[in-house]
Specification:
Strand content: 15-25%
Shape: globular
Structural class: alpha+beta
Number of helices: 13
């Protein structure tokens, strides 16, 4: 029996028989192939409220999707409703007030390009095709984090549609607990249809990629230099197999390299000392670091790339020589066609925000570390998952800590608790009880209301 959608829904209704169905149901993860009963593409918050009423009344599972980058596959659902907010692409820039209201269907690349034309930036992550909706409610750790903080640290207000269909303006004065919860608590509390961001003037920017051989000295040096650098520098250090990309020399492909992505939010001459130290670690295999527009950090991506990968995520306070040896040993012994240890030095503006100011609680961590491996078959997936989990256990020290945006398990309460320690989790549960007591929004790293 076909699900009935009210005439008051003004957006597009896509069903399995429609020509656009297969394209619209596809997400980034190559191992996710789910077939929803219907895809609803709203035009505004009223449409979102209507879609939520359909989900409540039908009892069908609901997935909310934007960029479709959920590693856990939460952007899709079998035999349920997908609320596809990619249609919500409004953008109002207040250049004088240095703020912007942005529809949650925009990608990070689209937003960055648009505000960059006015000389402004708001930090998101490291990938342009990520939807601003998902990355913002998770936290947002990217190329401007040490200078300007996480994405949520630059969120001033939001328009949120709650599970019962209310359309709320939330900020520090209006529904402050909901405003607190959506800054790091993920998609547990409602559908955000608009974000009000702070804009930062960003006249000069230096960015790009520095690739060097993967030796203990290069890895240790890159970690030490980027961690001690001025806050203008945010870096992502990838110890990985060089991909078979056209811009990488053929003799390097498949070898372990250190690919450091660098973002310097300041005058170019201020970056020279740091860049000189990094380049001196080893003769670069490739060096594309240069003055550029910040939007160039998000080049066009191949739409057909749908990786099949497993991953683990953690926060750690130190990465000493023993940890570096472990990283090299694990990456050398693994047979995955692509495997990576990604290290993101934190601190700076990230650490200056009190831990209880937002639902992102791990403000004092020195590094975020991500581990990932591509797999080639269902049996290989099991083996590679065992590898990344064992690898994580070797690097993770003390109480487990995680970033909810990179938890790739579809359902793992332990990793959710690692993202939200102690009082943070209790406060999120209280917010869930208030705004989503029936757990309508459960296709996420879920915080149960009980």
């Amino acid at each position: 029996m076909e699900l009935s959608i009210p005439d008051t829904f003004r957006g597009e209704v896509v069903r399995p028989a429609d020509s656009a169905y297969d394209e619209l149901r596809q997400v980034v993860a190559g191992d996710v192939d789910r077939r929803p009963a219907v895809i609803l593409r709203p035009v505004d918050a009223d449409d979102v409220a209507t879609a939520l009423a359909v989900a409540r009344e039908s009892g069908l599972p609901l997935a909310v999707r934007c960029g479709g980058h959920s590693g856990a596959g939460h952007s899709a659902v079998d035999d349920g409703i997908v609320l596809d907010v990619r249609t919500l692409k409004s953008l109002e820039i207040d250049a004088d007030g240095k703020t912007a209201w942005a529809g949650s269907g925009l990608t990070a690349g689209e937003y960055t390009e648009a505000v960059g034309q006015h000389g402004f930036a708001t930090g998101f992550g490291d990938t342009g095709s990520v939807g601003i909706g998902g990355i913002t409610v998770g936290g947002g750790i990217g190329f401007l984090a040490r200078k300007f903080g996480l994405t949520i640290d630059n969120l001033l207000a939001a328009e949120v549609v709650t599970a019962d269909g209310r359309i709320l303006r939330v900020d520090a004065e209006n529904h402050p607990e909901l405003f607190w919860a959506i800054r790091g608590g993920g998609g547990n509390f409602g559908v955000v249809t608009k974000f009000h961001y702070r804009l930062h003037e960003l006249g000069d920017f230096v960015g790009g990629m520095l690739m060097q051989p993967a030796t203990p000295e290069v890895i240790t040096g890159a970690i030490a230099i980027t961690s001690a650098a001025p806050e203008e520098l945010s870096a992502i250090i990838n110890v990985m197999t060089a991909p078979p990309a056209p811009f990488i020399p053929e003799e390097v492909r498949g070898r372990l390299v250190v690919m450091t992505l660098l973002g310097w939010a300041g005058p170019a001459d201020g970056a020279e000392q740091i860049l000189g130290q990094l380049r001196a670690l080893a003769t670069p295999i490739m060096d594309s670091v240069r003055p550029m527009a910040y939007a160039e950090m998000f080049p066009p991506e191949e739409a057909s790339f749908r990786p099949t990968a497993v991953g683990e995520n953690m926060f750690v306070d130190s990465l000493d020589g023993a940890a570096v040896d472990t990283i090299l040993k694990q990456l050398t012994e693994c047979d995955a066609p692509m495997r990576v240890t990604q290290i993101r030095p934190l601190g700076g503006a990230v650490a200056r925000v009190p831990a209880d100011a937002t639902a992102f609680a791990h403000r004092d961590a020195a590094y975020m570390v991500n581990l990932a491996a591509l797999y080639t078959s269902p049996a290989d997936r099991i083996a590679k998952q065992e590898w990344v989990t064992a690898f994580r256990d070797q690097l993770e020290t003390g109480t487990p800590r995680a970033y909810v945006g990179f938890v790739s398990d579809e359902d793992n309460p332990d990793r959710v608790r690692a993202a939200y320690p102690g009082a943070t989790f209790d406060r999120l549960v209280a917010a869930k009880r208030q705004y989503d007591p029936e757990n309508l929004f459960r296709r996420n790293q879920n915080i149960p209301p009980a």
